[in-house]
């Protein structure tokens, strides 16, 4: 589909960009720029990033060391600066729709060019700029020179070929020394595991993502185990739970046995597991026994209220048991 007649090509818009805004685009496209994601726009692979990631990069320490770029005080100023860079078409806002059948993991996301081109932190932006062309030209020239020199290796002078042979032996020796060091540090770690309480690593940063010199600093360190996060137990505390369990099970962990009631008199607790016997006697005798007992009569295992009803101790509340 043809665009409008007054549309400006992307390359022309980038050429018209001010020098300071172009320097910002070069910084964002460089190694210190925002995290790059892979997507598909109009059937072509493109790199894209999220707005808040670019804001975080512009407020970081690497941007402060960059020359010929506008100064940024806070995140709001960074967002305004990115809004000024956007019309120069170094990157354009895109939408990332969610397809109904979910694509497999690792598949590049499908992108669509957004009709509204304004910068917001929660939107995505696709790159239409590959960085400074000088770096591309120098890399291409270096690749051609290396390939051409390799093809002409038989024609090299004897001294140059001898120097290449020494360099290759030196490189192989460095690789062999690294492998030997890795084996020695593993053996030393195994010995310290058996002989001491805490294992020790030689050159603990040897395989970490650090610089060459930092890989050998420190010389040794203890092998600290990873701390496991404790999971919070849902519900109440253990003390309240224990009190409820003790209330349900009786006083001091003793479960009261069932009681026999005859003629309104309360007998002692029976150890045998027997069912509750009904009250023997007329209603008047039961009523007089209940009235004489008062509002409440408490015996181990059974509680009688003013209405003459008998409640098992297991149904008593915590406050009543503590009394």
TrEMBL record:
Keyword tags: Endoplasmic reticulum, Membrane, Protein transport, Receptor, Translocation, Transmembrane, Transmembrane helix, Transport
Cellular localization per UniProt: Endoplasmic reticulum membrane
GO biological process: post-translational protein targeting to membrane, translocation
Region (Disordered): 229-249, 285-323
Matches recorded under Pfam families: Sec62
A cellular-component GO term for this protein: endoplasmic reticulum membrane
Keyword GTP-binding found: no
Chain ranges passing through the membrane: 137-158, 164-188
Keyword Protein transport applies: yes
Topology versus the membrane: Multi-pass membrane protein
Family, per entry: Belongs to the SEC62 family.
Name the record gives this protein: Translocation protein SEC62
